[in-house]
Amino acid sequence: MSQTAASYVSKYNIAARIFHWVGAALIVAAVVIINQGEEFISLHKSVGFSFLIWTVLRLINRFVSAAPSPVAMSKLQHGLSVAVHGLLYVAMLAMPLTGLLASMAFGYGVNVFGVLPIAGFATPNDELGSMMMNLHKNLIWPALLALVAAHILAALYHQFVMKDKLLSRML
Ligand code: HEM
Ligand code: HEM
Prior knowledge:
Layout: H1 5-8, H2 14-34, H3 41-64, H4 75-105, E1 110-112, E2 116-118, H5 126-162
Antiparallel strand pairs: 1-2
Bound molecules: protoporphyrin IX containing FE (2 copies).
């Protein structure tokens, strides 16, 4: 792939940029809300479900429109960025999916913002519910946090050490 001056600073398209930052805001909102206590679980589920739909639309946009070619960096760094972005997408899908499946398996379902009811299992399966909730809280969540931390550190490294304007591609 040739690295022209233009592609060096080219941006993600406007849709990708909006998907990125609104997605980040939805994750923060989902977590802030669940930490307010039990009475906010329903709102947590609604925001989390919105994040799932948002992420699916984002992935469709990602597949139908080209991402800008990567900025110049070592093979190792590029490999790491592809791996972390890929794992981020996996965790971004797994997080709401495990929450949704847990709620469904316990028989509760979700009523998204009070307007889109998604039924729970007619015959609850507590074992499946506990398994999904355990993944939601104790595996996917810490993994997502670690990936986001690595992702932000990488962005800071590009900004302040490599000074390669990578951040501006997403702004
Ligand atoms: C962006 C997506 C989501 C994120 C980042 C997220 C994050 C979290 C976190 C960090 C907790 C643990 C709270 C604690 O242990 O104090 C939690 C709990 C929970 N989440 Fe999610 N969640 C998401 C989506 C969903 C969805 C879509 C559902 C269901 C439809 C859901 C249902 C639940 C439930 C039922 C709990 C347990 C609440 C409790 O009784 O303590 N989550 N979530
Ligand atoms: C302060 C917080 C954040 C900053 C500064 C930031 C910055 C960036 C930048 C600069 C890129 C483009 C990388 C490139 O050009 O190769 C990017 C891509 C990406 N970011 Fe973030 N990000 C932040 C938070 C998040 C969060 C919270 C998530 C998800 C939970 C996320 C998920 C992603 C994903 C999946 C990509 C890959 C886009 C693609 O190529 O499809 N980011 N981010």
